[in-house]
Design goal:
Strand order of the largest sheet: 5-6-7-10-9
Structural class: alpha+beta
Distance between the termini: 66 Å
CATH architecture of the largest domain: Beta Barrel
Largest sheet: 5 strands, mixed, barrel
CATH topology of the largest domain: OB fold (Dihydrolipoamide Acetyltransferase, E2P)
Radius of gyration: 24 Å
Helix content: 40-55%
Strand content: 15-25%
Number of domains: 2
């Protein structure tokens, strides 16, 4: 009888630990979702945006790591923000653990990602097996670029007027007399003398001249943008409407090398941006010319890189 009682206590201990562990797992996922939500909310706050600009994530990473220790790297904060952006409605999803949700963030097709989330929960797929499944899905997408099927090309960007602005959301009474505050995009507000007469509009084109700093992979670049008025900013661009193979694959490495040959460091380009993706990169169309050209010449006659990568089979449409 005594032995049976001890076994019963041990079984209860196992059950209790399981409950505690499951609650902790859900709490971690919920915490990351809530952190991501706050980051997105703050990024949409005009005053905070004006102060920190594109450096918000970097500042957060530095300050949170100093105060709370590991777990707040720039890369992890970007994933946390992306996690919220993938699940912005209602409350945090808690069917899976954080490792599995993070793995699934690399699936760009939302329908496929949701399908895999349900499959992973339903079949209790391990993190290692899920990583393998995700890799296979990404390879399937990459292989479409090698299938020989004629790709559907993107519409060439229109309204390529350079350097148009709208008045920033900051109350204009904070601006010195004789000046105006411009929203340049990219989380940058500029205070400039009104006598310079910048091109003001309610719907800026977000078209600027820039120089390539580095090719990150086949569809992502780090660039320095000329915002006008002697102001420049650095940001990452994600080419609109296309996807190249993962950098860890031979095809992905080849795609990166191809873009590097086309756009070496310092190459002049024209970009038109639309929004940010879930990782905070600005989604963009990119134009360039093989020979040295003025920004207006590139805007009028430049090669549309997004389509060029599709035509060469280096990228697939998304």
């Amino acid at each position: 009888m005594s032995q049976n009682i001890e076994i019963s206590k041990y079984d209860k201990l196992i059950a209790d630990v399981g409950i505690i562990f499951e609650e902790a797992r859900k709490a971690l996922v919920t915490a990351y979702w809530q952190i991501g939500k706050r980051i997105v909310e703050i990024e949409q706050d005009g005053n905070v945006r004006a102060k920190y600009g594109a450096n918000l994530i970097n500042s957060l990473s530095k300050d949170l790591t100093r105060k709370y220790g590991p777990g707040f790297s720039r890369e992890n904060l970007i994933k946390i923000r992306a996690f919220y952006n993938k699940h912005p409605k209602g409350s945090a999803p808690t069917l899976l653990n954080w490792t599995k949700y993070r793995e699934l963030l690399s699936i760009k097709d939302d329908h496929k990602r949701i399908e895999l989330e349900k499959k992973a929960a339903r079949e209790n797929i391990s993190s290692n097996d899920l990583r393998r499944i995700v890799k296979e899905e990404k390879n399937k997408s990459s292989n479409k670029a090698l299938s020989g099927i004629e790709p559907e090309l993107l519409d060439r960007p229109t309204n390529l007027t350079l350097n148009t602005y709208k008045l920033s959301d900051d109350p204009q009474n904070k601006v010195p007399a004789g000046h105006i505050s411009l929203d340049c995009g990219f989380y940058v507000d500029l205070c400039v003398p009104a006598k310079l007469k910048p091109q003001l509009t309610q719907k800026p084109s977000f078209v600027y001249s820039a120089n390539v700093i580095r090719v990150v992979d086949g569809d992502t670049l780090l660039v320095e943008i000329d915002l006008g008025f002697n102001a420049r900013t650095r940001t990452r661009l994600r080419l609109r409407g296309i996807n190249t193979p993962e950098l860890s694959t031979p095809e992905g490495a080849s795609a990166k090398r191809s873009v590097e040959r086309t756009l070496p460091k310092g190459k002049s380009i024209i970009l038109k941006t639309y929004s940010t993706d879930i990782f905070g990169r600005f989604v963009a169309d990119l134009l360039y010319m093989k020979e040295n050209s003025t920004p207006n010449e590139i805007a009028d006659h430049g090669i549309f890189l997004n389509n060029q990568l599709l035509e060469k089979g280096i990228a697939v449409p998304i």
